[in-house]
Amino acid sequence: MGRLKPGPEAALFEHYNARLRPPLVVTELPEARGSAAEVRRREGAALLAALPEGALLVAMDLGGQAPTSEALAALAERWEATARPLAFAIGGAEGLDPTVLARADHKLSLGPLTWPHFLVRGLLAEQWYRVQAIRANHPYHRAWRPG
Ligand SMILES: C[S@@+](CC[C@H](N)C(=O)[O-])C[C@H]1O[C@@H](n2cnc3c(N)ncnc32)[C@H](O)[C@@H]1O
Predict the structure, then answer these.
(1) How far apart, in whole angstroms, are the C-alpha atoms of residue 90 and residue 125?
(2) Which domains can be identified in the chain, with CATH numbers?
(3) Spatial contact of 121 and 26, defined as CB atoms under 8 Å apart
(4) For a tag on the chain, would you pick the N or C end, based on fewer CB atoms within 10 A?
(5) How far apart are CA 37 and CA 11, in angstroms?
(6) Is 144 in contact with 98 (CB distance < 8 Å)?
(7) Best of 9, 61, 106 to mutate for ligand 1, by most ligand atoms within 8 A of CB?
(8) Contact of 143 with 70, CB cutoff 8 Å
(9) Distance 147 CA to ligand 1 centre (A)
(10) Where does S-adenosyl-L-methionine bind (predicted)?
C-alpha cells in the first residue's frame, strides 16, 4: 500500500530489486482515508481487486509464519511449482484487512517487530534475493550459526 517517494526506502528496494531475476513488479495502491477499520477495508478491497488472476497470495503480516531464510527458500520452490503468479501484499499503516488475510495462501512474518510498510518493501526484496542465492548455492548467503 502507498506511493513510495524517492528517498532511502526507495533506494533500498531498488538496490535489491535490481539484483533479482526476475525483478519484483510493484503495484502501488493509494492509501485510504477514514477510521482505521475503514482504511483497512477500503485498502483491502483495492488490494484484492489488483491481484493477478489465480495469484498465489503471500500476505506480509506480523501474525504469520516467520520461517528461516532456508525454509523460505523451500517455500519459494513450492510456490514456484504451482506455476501461479506470485503476489506479496504489504499493508498500509493500519495493517492488512482480515479479508486479505483470509484470501492469502500464506501469511509471512519477518519476525515479531513492527516495521514501516515502506521499509518492508526493501526487506522483502533483500530476503527474496537471499532466497535466490540459497537456491543457486551462491555465497551471498552464509548459513553458519554458532552451535
Ligand atoms: C506498520 S505495519 C502495520 C501495523 C499493524 N498494526 C499490523 O499489525 O498489521 C504495515 C505493514 O507492514 C508489513 N509489516 C510490518 N512489520 C512486519 C513484519 N514484522 N512481518 C511482516 N510484515 C510486516 C505488514 O504488511 C503490515 O500490514
Answers:
(1) 12
(2) 8-135 (3.40.1280.10)
(3) yes
(4) C
(5) 31
(6) no
(7) 61
(8) yes
(9) 31
(10) 91, 110-115
